[in-house]
Amino acid sequence: MKRGWIIVLITSLFLSTFAISNEVNVFNARHYKADAELFSKFTNKTGIKVNLINGKAGALEKRMIEEGTESSADLYITADAGRCGAFKAKGMTQGGLTSAAIKAAVPSNFRTSHWVGVAKRARIIYYAPERVSGAELSGLTYESLADPKWKGRLVIRKSSNIYNKSLVASLVKNNGKAATAKWAEGVVANMARTPKGNDRAQIMAVAAGEADIAVANTYYLALMLSGNKGAEQQAAAKKVKAFFPNQNDRGTHMNISCAAMVKGAPNKSNAIALVEYLLTPEAQEHFTNNTFEFPMIDGVSPNPLVVNNLGLDFKQDLKTKVSSYGAKQTDALEVMTAAGWK
Amino acid sequence: MKFNSWYLSSFLISFVVLIPIITVFSSFFESTSNYYEILKNTFLMEYIFNSIILLISVLALTFVIGTGTAYLVSFYNFPGSNFFKWALILSFAVPPYIYAYSLTAFFENYGTAFTILKNLFGDANYNKNIPKFDGMFGAILSISFSLYAYVYILVRASFLYQSQNLIDLGKNLGFSKFKSFYKIILPAARPAIVAGLSLVAMETLAEFGAVDFFSINTLTTGIYNSWITFDDLAFANRISFFLLLFIFSLFVLENLSRRRAKYHLNSKGGFKQKQKTKLFGKSSFLAFIFCFLIFFMSFLFPLGQMLYWTIKFPENLFDLQIIDLVLNTLYLVVLSSLVLLIFSLISNYGNRVSNNKSLNFLSTISISGYAIPGVILAIAFITFIAWLDDSIIKSLGFASIKKVFIGSILGLVLVYFIRFYSLAFNGIKSGYEKINISVDESAYLLGYSKRKTFMNIHIPFLRNSLLFIIILISLEIIRELPITLILRPFNFETFATTAYISASEDLLEAAAVPSLFLILIASLFIIISSKYILKENNE
Amino acid sequence: MSKNFFEVKNVDFKVGGKTKVANVSFAIEKEGDVICLLGPSGIGKTTILRTIAGLEKIKKGSIELKGNVLSSEKINLEPEERNISLAFQENSLFPHYTVEKNILLGAEKNKGKKDHQVSLQEIIELLDISLILDKYPHEISAGEAQRASLARSLVTQPDLLLLDEPLSNVDQSFKEEIQEKLKKILKSSKITTIIVTHDSYEAFYLGSKCGIILNQELKQFDDPYNVYHLPNSIEVVNFLNRGTLIHAEVTSPKSLENKDLGTITGNFIKPFPIGSKVKLLVQPEDLHHDDKSNLKFEVVDRKFRGTNFIYTLKTPSNTLIPVFVHSHHIHQHEIDEKFGIKRPIHIDHIVCF
After folding, report:
1. Distance between CA B426 and CA B343 in Å, rounded?
2. CATH number of the domain within which C85 lies
3. Range of the domain at C279
4. How many structural domains does chain C have?
5. Which residue among A17, A33, A229 places its CB closest to the CB of B404?
6. How close C210 comes to chain B (CA, Å)?
């Protein structure tokens, strides 16, 4: 009797280490409910079980690195190209995401053979139409956010935020480190408050009148407009308009959610199948309607909330390879910190 | 030979607990530096500065709240004083990160406060008039309201054993109530206050969830970032040096004051049951308001906010696999409590029968796992297993052990074990201290073997202590975040991780449901254990 | 040659490497005998009991029971393997069991053994613990706890019973009664017992032999009368504190001369050469009161002991001498009055050092 209990105890400790065969193991740093739903659709379709571990990107990466060749990870999904690039630079990924279906679906600047973008978002400007004129906005670029005319009128997140790091990395790539350092000082001088809160908090600060313009990702406004955040935020979102910067030169800064093939992946072909599935119109529509991201593939339209309120017809920055976000990340952090960007 | 096997097993247990702590230190001596010196110095100063501001503010706030409420409920009778006596510990059920979600949800632009004002006074832009509790200020409030109960419980216990003579003495000297409080009552409770505050300080320094949510860079998040994000062990080493310096001094302080507190409590002679003073009129109202405010702020407010959201966005309730989450939580709680209890009992008993100085020392150090932030412990554990596997196991030709330990329930339970070992070990130790060693010897003389003494005498006597420890461990595991987040297996979530994950994607409404369940389950455990926590006689 | 029932031979009793009592030898000849070990607190009496019980080990000498070696340099039987019971001075009842259950646990030990001399019920009655049987150890007084653990030890029917200050926490008023009952139980149950105490009257009353432990040694091991009246060293005299040592000179094989008392006759226990200066032990019983005697001293103190008075007299050379007087003696002497000593002075056993 007693011995029986001991055996139960010991087996239950080891239970989770027994593996099931037809599966794909996903280390997921994107935690949308929509993603989980997509994965179960994939399982229903293919019979491949998706094992999911959600977590902070850094911790997941550390775990895969330490597990090394024994890692059970097949795919690493995260919401920033800079992360995928840096992970590849550490030698933690492998090629293989080169199937015809993938190549046909994803434009070349949004993929490498190691990782592939599965959805897009743009980092744009939000403004309060009551307080910002069309003339002021005309020709607005990321670069001109340092213009003294925005003094005390701009809100943006902390420098430690990965979206900001990638944005600034793209500026370093295009304008050089010295020019970006100067730019960062100008931006800090223009801030209406010490950076705090998430992207949505920046948009709401504009709606509440704390600032006139904000930098935030596209899908946040749509999320607020959807009413999923309550009637008050829906009303607040209507007080704010979106503006796509850099339309007259390289286009608006784009970022992606990416899926990287992990080195030593035990279920490589299943992983490829999952990535291909995420790029199907069905999956892409699911993304656009739930997370309000832009689709990666042609032929799928963004959610009407995005189309109607943000506009669709804007010039994307397809010149700056998203893989440079990872390469210039350290420079970006350095210029922001040196400028006193909290 | 019997002595040796007990000795050996308790030695081994202490050693296993020490492993990650050793790893933290040794792995920090490898240097891979890849980012810039100027930045590091800027960051280091910021980390230290933020940690100190956070620490001092939280200590000040928890001191005022903890001793204030403890004083009122132990010395006075006023409406609700008996209710507040235990209701005030319910704040333990709300971990700082959930408190942080509630603060943000309520006070942000167009948040719950805005909605309330709008419904009361009609449409207007109230945002400017609503105070913003975010950033450092938000972190201070979140941690303080969640942790003040440490001070409250310990100080209240100390007040309880203060003899009536002490208070009579104050009256005799013609002291006012206020003068008696700070001249006599407070100094007499000093060891308990110091012990409570050092626990608060350790938890504050180790705090990850709330601090991370408000993006405050403290030493703990600094270690996490430089180690994890930048792979810069050398810098992580420097930060942890400062952190451990803090923690070590707190650990020593806490141990010393605990010893003194015990001495203090044991003076049973001449103990005279205190008469609580009945308060009337204004003072009674003020006492009630103070306690109610604290109770409201620390418990009702976060509970209400989470409840409000759950009702406002009911779809989140149906999305959640509640039964799975409850089962997962129970599974972890049962398994970890069992493992912790069994091994803590063995090592305590081993210490008792072998009475060996070096073993005592080893187990004293090994309980320091509690002082090391969970996030660092978890990563140290992974690093250690990877090192062990790569440099020893594989070179001996064995199969890799990584999968057995990393991302498995075994690994998770093992790190919980390291983190909460001190809780179980000290709990059992204080139970054991009440059993005279001659009781063991009588048992031997009655023909009991060591095993039979352990099973038939110690275990039944420690039954109540064990129950209480199980509840404490459960409470910790239910609320635990970073270790679970980093080490859990595939497809395995708890209420804490579900809440955290939703919150980290700016889906605070979705975080409300798991948070609400977490608070309710934790409250249930607290209510069950309140009679042990608040025991009135020193049995 | 008849072998002793229990014997300690040349043992050094140690705790944690520190010698408490060195080179001890004594024996209990027959089963059922009760002996007492007497000595000041902290001298190592408890260590001796713990060692006999097997809770401490020895490096020198041997301890034997019924002809079997229990402890020696090489052999060490575990406590649970010796049929020895030890009642601790402090509360050692199992805290989570009632007093009754505690006692029953003791009774379980030698269940097989048939010859229960004294029933459980008798023990409970004799020790007067029937009212506390349902209580838990923390609910009873120290004296009650002591009696309960005494009961637990008694019911185990051990070969050897060790009692460590068994009555130290029992109320003074109740103590004599318990002592009598204890003596009765021990006698009727024929349990061989070693009692440790610092109370000499208790030792003299309960033990057929008494050992005096002083300065890390077993100074004297003898029957109570001899220990009391024929102490073998000045240390024993000082410890028992029942007499005074006065200076005297040996004048013949049968007499001594003291400055204040004059000639004292009697039989020397140990012969001394004539003319040697010695210290003579004078106990209260040695001198007799005589109002008519012209040998008078000043009374400086008077202790009423119920059956008797003990007067303390001061001699011209400032020596204090105790004298025993029956309490029904026709009159009493107040302090500062003169008190006569009967002459000639004769002491049966002359003890000199």
Report:
1. 12
2. 3.40.50.300
3. 243-350
4. 2
5. A17
6. 25
Contact B434 C95 (CB under 8 A): yes
Same domain as C222, residue C95: yes
Which pairing describes strands A241-243 and B76-77: parallel, antiparallel, or unpaired? Answer: unpaired
Which chains pack against C, by 3+ Cβ pairs within 8 A?
Answer: B
C208 shares a domain with C267? no
Chain A residues close to B325, C-beta within 8 Å: none
Q: Which residues contact C171 (CB under 8 A, 6 or more apart)?
A: C143
Q: Do B410 and A14 touch (CB under 8 A)?
A: yes
What ipTM does this complex have? 0.83
B403:A70 CB<8 A: yes
Note whether C220 and C267 are same-domain residues. no
B324: in domain: no
Q: Are C80 and B461 in contact (CB < 8 Å)?
A: no
Give contacts of C92 with chain B, Cβ < 8 Å: 436, 438-439, 441-442
Domains of chain A: 2-120+255-302 (3.40.190.10), 122-253+317-338 (3.40.190.10)
Q: Is C86 in contact with B445 (Cβ distance < 8 A)? A: yes
User: For residue B320, what is the nearest residue in chain A, using CA coordinates?
Assistant: A33
What chain C residue is nearest to B461 in terms of C-alpha separation? C96
Chain-chain contact of B446 with C92 (C-beta, under 8 angstroms): no
Q: Tell me the percentage of chain B whose pLDDT exceeds 70.
A: 84
Which chain A residues have a beta carbon less than 8 Å from that of B42? 337
Q: What is the three-class DSSP state of B269?
A: coil
Question: What pLDDT, on the 0 to 100 scale, is given for residue C1?
Answer: 40
CA distance B446 to C158: 9
* Residues 6 or more apart in contact with residue A127 via CB below 8 angstroms: A137, A206, A212, A213, A214, A240, A241, A243
Is C1 part of any domain?
no
Distance CA B135, CA B150 (A): 24
Return d(Cα A310, Cα A208) in angstroms, integer. 20
CATH number at residue B194: 1.10.3720.10
Chain C residue with Cα closest to B460: C96
- For C61, other C-beta atoms within 10 Å of its C-beta total 18
Predicted local distance difference test score (pLDDT) of residue B313:
84
Residue C37 has which token pair?
Answer: 């070990």
Domain residues for B266?
31-312
C146, C169: one domain? yes
Which residue in C46, C51, C85, C96 has the most chain B C-beta atoms within 10 A of its own C-beta, making it the best mutation to test that interface? C96
Q: Nearest chain B Cα to A20, which residue? A: B490
Per-residue confidence of chain A (342 residues) as pLDDT tens digits?
Answer: 556 666 666 666 665 445 556 899 999 988 777 788 889 999 999 999 999 888 888 888 888 888 887 788 999 999 888 888 888 888 899 998 888 989 988 888 888 899 999 998 899 999 999 999 888 888 899 999 999 999 999 999 988 888 999 999 999 999 999 999 999 999 999 999 988 888 888 999 999 889 999 999 988 888 888 887 888 888 888 889 999 999 988 999 999 999 999 998 899 999 999 999 999 999 999 988 888 888 898 888 888 887 777 776 788 888 888 888 888 888 898 899 888 888
- Mean pLDDT, chain C, rounded, equals 86
Chain C residues close to B439, C-beta within 8 Å = 92-95
Cα C240 to Cα C212: distance, rounded to the nearest angstrom? 9
Closest approach of B288 to chain C, Cα-based (Å): 37
User: How far A156 CA sits from the closest chain B CA (Å)?
Assistant: 14
Residues whose CB is less than 8 angstroms from the CB of residue C340 and which lie 6 or more positions away in sequence, other chains included? C289, C290, C291, C292, C293, C294, C295, C296
